[in-house]
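Re: your question from the hallway

Yes, I did run it. Sequences:
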Amino acid sequence: MPKKVLVIGSGPIVIGQAAEFDYSGTQGCLALKEEGHEVILVNNNPATIMTDNEIADKVYCEPLTVQSVEAIIKKEKPDAVLAGLGGQTGLNLAVDMNKHGLFAEYDLELLGTSVQSIQQGEDRELFRELMDELKQPVPESEVIASVEEALQFTAEYGYPVISRPAYTLGGRGGGIVDNEEELKELVANGLKASPIGQVIIEKSIAGFKEVEYEVMRDVNGTCISVCNMENFDPVGVHTGDSIVVAPSQTLTDQEYQMLRTAAFTIISALDVIGGCNVQFALDPYSKKYYVIEVNPRVSRSSALASKATGYPIAKMATKLALSYRLDELINPLTGTTYASFEPALDYVVVKFPRWPFDKFSNADRRLGTKMKATGEVMAIDRTLEGAFQKAVASLDQTIPEILEEQFEEHLTKPTDLRYFTIVEMLKQGTTIKEIHDTTAIDLFFLQVIANLVQTEQQLKNQNLDKKLLKTAKVQGFTDKKIAELKRIDEAEVKEKRTRFEVSPSYKMVDTCAAEFEAATNYVYTTYAGTNEIAPLPPNKKALIIGSGPIRIGQGVEFDYSAVKAIQSLQNLGWTTVMINNNPETVSTDYTTADRLYFDPINKEVIESIVEHEGIDLVFTQFGGQTAINIAEELSEAGVPLAGVSVDTIAKLEDREQFYSVLQSIDVPHIPGEMCHTMDEALEAAGSYEYPLLCRPSYVIGGQGMVKVENEQQLIEALRETDERHYPIVLDQFMTGSEAEIDLVADGENVFVPDIMEHLEPAGVHSGDSMALFPSQNLTSEVKKKLTDYAQKIVQKVNYKGLMNIQFLLSDGIVYVLEVNPRASRTVPIISKVSEVSLVDLAVKVLVDEESDALNDTAQPSIQKAAVKFPLFSSHALPELDHKLGANMLSTGEGMCLADTTEEAMAKVFEHLPNLYEAENACLIESEHEVKGKSSDLNFAEWIELKEAKVYMNDGNRQIDSVKRIQALKAGVTVFTQAATFNAYVGSLAYNPYQPTPLPGSKAKECV
Amino acid sequence: MQGFLTLQEGKSFQGEASGTWEKPVEGEVVFFTGMTGYQEVLTDPSYKGQIVVFTYPLIGNYGINEDDFESGYPQVSGVVMMQCAEEAYHYQATTSLKDYLNKWNVPYLTEVDTREVTKAIRSEGTCQAVMAHETINPSDTKLVGQIFQASKSEVETYGNGGQHIAVIDFGYKGSIVDQLQEHGVRVSVVPFTQVQKVHDLQPDGVVLSNGPGDPKDAMKFLSEIKGVLEQYPSLGICLGHQVIALAYGADTKKLAFGHRGANHPVKDVQTGRVFITSQNHNYVVDDMSVADTVLEVSFNHVNDGSVEGLMHPSKPILSAQFHPEANPGPEDALWLFDEFFTSVNHKKGVQVYA
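Structure:
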């Protein structure tokens, strides 16, 4: 019987919970609809595909809290709830809902794994009891509720110990310590971070192999293991921060099966229905093992396992939750075999984490039990050497130079640079044995890196004959790298390849290692073996370039644009080909495009695919800055790009050219200058008044962008700026407010759905500011000016496609701050709230010269008010001051929708206490006049209180920074801008519990 | 030095030869898609005389150890791989895979696109192949009667438990005896050609082992085997299962390219439960032929519906096409041994108290 199912999403992206839940949620919603159920989705992350009306029947961008969800339940009266696709957030919410009796009160069924089982898997104490019962070994540990108990534990078992707070996300508040002082701080913070005030203290088993299994179980008790994975980094580094290899490489069949059987024993006892992740630590010198953790839900690892094997875990998990049995479900990749089998791989997969340390140079780079990566890349190849190199190439990041005196630190702490340090050390003659002895990394993996180093030496010193070239390509060396080592031109390497007939092949991911015939569209490039992929049937073919790993400034919103572009192109009759390397995303779901190339995004790979498939148009507008950045190279290589020429992009991105464009059309810009060297910058600075805004080129999310108050600060900032980010721009720093526009242009006409207005004053990065859409406080005169300026710019450069323009409003003058010639972060929000798909329009004008799409689209009349808000992963990086400024700090964003801005704002702050009602909940330390009621205590006293929840401090002194960091470490919400704080205080008067679905949600008749 | 694997229909694959081979190696070529377990595969007597292609590209990662052999030496005639690890770093490893194969003079090819070979076997079906320094077409002579070489020539006894199980040997895997011994019993291995000797042992139960090739090679011994089955609680594994079927009048047939690997889903007809099994067979029991016998089908393959197990409605006879002893592969069907011992104990009880 068709049911109405409430699906819980995972909310905005934070470290530890990223795009993988858009992928699993989207699959889950589609699986529900496939079975004829009605899907009501609650998820306040608008930058996702799952919050599209095409995926769910009705979408609520509402807070993910019990009261808020209860309001939705009252309104929608669903029959069932699916929480297992929403990550830790979804699971915790389900447990909470159960605690508040919602399931009983509203007669709701929880699909999939029961609350009791969830608790048994997640509650440390219950879990340990169960493991004892099953005779499954767990590390010596104790659940504690006070610092004293922790000290008793270490008195008995010694250091180091791991602290893991119960019910937290991505190891939030956890860590590994080897002394009493650190232990006290860690445990105190951990107790605060845990919603139930529990921390597990565990004897460290650092150095063991870390192995995980992605397993599934149906109502009939049938279990399968979809994939097992082995961490390159031994136990001690969070699996989200580990380099991971699939399948396991160093385990004998005996060990592999022993752990697999243990995983089945555990999920059977837990009565899991759906997917589950089980993590083990295996002694490298015996068959002794420990169960580390069980996650009775789909997870980051299950997204990785899905992409690594081709087996759609989330989709199948959803069907299992609907009581299907595994042997009833068809394996969609083969179409002939069933879901009740275990994928066999005939390739290897390497996952590399993507860390935010390129943006946060002051953050603590050490890795431990708390996840710090914002995203990840995956690479597929037939050799581990190839897969490692492809993964590194996919990171889209310059690896900083590692000095010899830092080797020890990177290697042993360890830091995010450990892999690269190992490469350097091997180059300098350190043996793999020595590295193994200090790191416990398996010699097998180190040998792989040693092989790469050896080939690199050969490339440097030997003649580049066919054999060496072939070896290098099989091992994943790019033409560019070979050229660099041989000191020849990249074109020459390509020429040699052509002459020696060393060319890329394409192979299929089919879940069954070729045992059965499979017609999949999931392929990867390799130089090991012959080609088995024929070009897609002749048609107009488009290649959409993805945005790679999630990082600060480039999040899931670009995946949204890429996926929407694919859909639009398909609707227009095009054959679509996707290239991307982020395993968490919907764009790398092989069912999204007509063919998926899971590969690094670089010129060499793209050029080969374009040649192989006969691509007509390559789209770089939808993959964020990553895609835009290679447009020039692609254009030079003669690859046909959709939209405007590289010259036009330069006119908008290159400051010098950009300012002259603006001047030619009488559009004001901030006084500023382009500087090619440090000396030039210092000289230029002399002619302006401080403060200045120092802005490097070709960066994501304002990376390296700083406001400098004086010459000394400018010199410091310039010293930290990388060579490749010159020229830098020095702008006059101006006060005022900001607004932005996302538009579609066809060279002449411009379509602007409406204007977005920032809450915080200028100087706060647009990605970190709260924003109102449509704008609430702009006069019609100003609005008109913004759209006029937009039109002028478009017409001047004859722009086609999506464009984002940022404006500064100061003293009645409208300045253009910057233009992004691509899909921007806010495209999904604008599209969803205005009910006009900007991507769809953009695709129409990009593929059809004659398109009248813009004129044919009516100006939307927007009935609702939306507030966009940033999310900061301060739990993962509490050592950073999150004072808002020019450099973007947030990892994700959320949105709330309501009839009025005030109500939407109330939803945004719904999780915070009412400072008028809760004594001592809030402490305000500001020189500005702000609303609200502060505690009378001083900071030191206040921060010790259990009730301390909200801290407002917008000061610029060192002590302010120290206090904010201390507050963050204690798990307190910190406000650093008066405008944001006032909005919070102002919102307290409004009711956040009036669920407002996204416009365009299908109103389904009740049957 | 270059080497080639050439299949029956002339398809040829180039690779790097393990050395200078004196003469071409010919054998039936089969593929194994499991990602671990190469040591068990190479020493499993069911692979006697075959050329094994490992589809997974990285083989030999954990070397060769002293604990995971299925028999005393490599049974295969040749090995085809994409990559074979030079060194073994696993703590149990006593030698690298390369050194092990070289020691036993087992020729092998590396740098072969094993996915392509697998596809070729999939479409061509199991066939003869030649490994040589040139492309040489295989002859038409197929190996027959491998079970006569794979089985031992004398009765051998292991362990000293109270109960006694006889294994009728067609080329048994060491893990079958290991699994029986896990249950604390004495095990005697009896060559199938001397099946009459089972009666001398008066065992508490009988296991018909796996073995290479065509079960019909054992045709001559079927009536004697049936005599044993009728008298003792029995468990047939793989070829042993096929022999039970033949003994009761069912027929066997050859699959296009066999079931090999560690990921075969099998469904228990009674409970509907599915479990993942380890398999290695070219021949199956013809399901149509079972209908005319007293036997009942107890397990089916989920993907192709083929017969995966049989049972006798009134006698304690069980059989499985898959390998409940695992090694390599999942341990999900270990319970079949428990089931077997339940019938052994039950039978014993009947005898004592009747």
